[in-house]
Amino acid sequence: MFILCHQNKELISYHAINRADIQDTDMEAIMDSIVDSLFCFFVTLGAVPIIRCPRGNAAEMVAVKLDKKLRENLRDARNSLFTGDSMSAGQFSFQRPLFVLADRNMDMATPLHHSWTYQALIHDVLDFHLNRVVMEEGSSMEPSPGGARPKKKSKKSYDLTAADKFWQKHKGSPFPEVAESVQEELDSYRAQEDEVKHLKSIMGLEGEDEGAISMLSDNTAKLTSAVSSLPELLEKKRLIDLHTNVATAVLDHIKSRKLDVYFEYEEKLLSKSNLDKSLLDIITDPDAGTPEDKMRLFLIYYITAQQAPSELDLEQYRKALLDAGCDLSPLNYIKQWKAFTKMANPANYGNSGVKPMGLFSRVMNTGSQFVMEGVKNLVLKHWCPGKPLTCDPRFLLHFVSLQETDDYRYFDPKMLRGSESSVPRNKNPFQEAIVFVVGGGNYIEYQNLVDYTKSKPGRKVVYGCSELFNAAQFMKQVRRHTCPVSVCSCSSVT
């Protein structure tokens, strides 16, 4: 994954691209900034990509400008940045990568979705930035004796790095599976710790017979081996403590906000499965989530509905949301967004074949003493996304003609300009693809692509976005809008 590191990320944010009062010059400056960053990315990569993009949005503007910038650089072979050492150093030295540009406005439901994988959940409910999670520790603020100021919660930070083997293995796993794995790691550590303690106790054997001496010699060798592995054991303990604390904090949010209920209900909305309860029941349940959770759920319902609710039903939902303390400004924006896009090709949320499993599936052994034992009553040990990103991964790597992507524009900066009708449609499958979302991305889409490539050995997909936000950050930007414009502001791009 890569993210554009702009000096002021607000200048290339979703709100900046889609604000109602944006001027053409401002839009050009935003697109130029994104293109300059992407150009540097491909120079560093040492590869000239084949570019595909949808029509009529900011992604198309970026594609046109990037194609032009690449062509201009390739035109002067002597001064081109894509010759010499940079090309040989590229990861994609044997085949050019496919670069697919997507627009955030193509899929507004995924950024609002309550996820169920470890990394995405941490990003959603905790303070997680640049692989560092910051959490508050200690009990709630209590008055100190003698009328002193109340004690504030201390903050603790944890780095989730590539050196953390548990994180690398489980960051994309469903949360209950992570809890189970933490328990297994804890049991393994305790077994090793008990073995060391046992060896220490029997080192005091008495007697000088040959059997005792032989046993002492064997145990000495075992103890020496145990001592030599002590640094590894201590590091294992540190990582277990780290993930126990982080996962417990996530679990607290899941239990207090009933995030498992939201996740399963949203999965059913995204996959067009039968609903086992009324949407109003969740919205009006005072114990089910925060006002923002309820608003996110309703927006996903509104976005994915094949037919908009009647005015009578909508008024009923509005009243329930207001009674729950929700801010309705995001709904006003989404209504306008849907009106702009309903004549275009909207995101199709019903083709994933997802069939959410039942609630309360057991994912941990009965009788576990682990602090997260309560997680065994949560949903879905095995998780599938309701929407595989804004583009179908089959299109990314196979270049097949899918209904959703058949109308994508094609750019090859190495070829002379020609008619797009002459675009080669039956090429060999791509082994490498780069997906970039203009307007912001999230860990849900990233994990979707990671899971897809795991099932396709030899294939590589890199995910990038202009900014990385969680649902709360995305909602904050949506609230600032009065009406969307980027869905129609680039229709004249050629």
Walk me through the topology.
Elements: E1 2-3, H1 14-18, H2 24-45, E2 50-53, H3 58-75, H4 85-88, E3 98-103, H5 118-125, E4 127-129, E5 132-137, E6 154-159, H6 165-170, H7 175-202, H8 210-228, H9 230-257, H10 259-271, H11 279-284, H12 291-304, H13 311-323, H14 329-341, H15 393-398, E7 409-411, E8 432-438, H16 443-454, E9 460-465, H17 471-479, H18 486-489
Parallel strand pairs: 1-9, 2-3, 3-8, 8-9
Antiparallel strand pairs: 2-7, 4-5, 5-6
Helix pairs in contact: 2-3, 5-9, 7-8, 7-9, 10-12, 12-14
Pfam families: Sec1 (PF00995)
Keywords: Protein transport, Transport
Organism: Oryzias latipes
Question: What features would you describe in this structure?
Answer:
There is one protein chain. The chain contains 18 helices and nine strands. By secondary structure, it is an alpha/beta fold. The chain has two domains: 2-107 and 389-489, Rossmann fold (3-Layer(aba) Sandwich); 161-386, no CATH class. It has a six-stranded mixed beta sheet, with helices on both faces. The protein is globular.
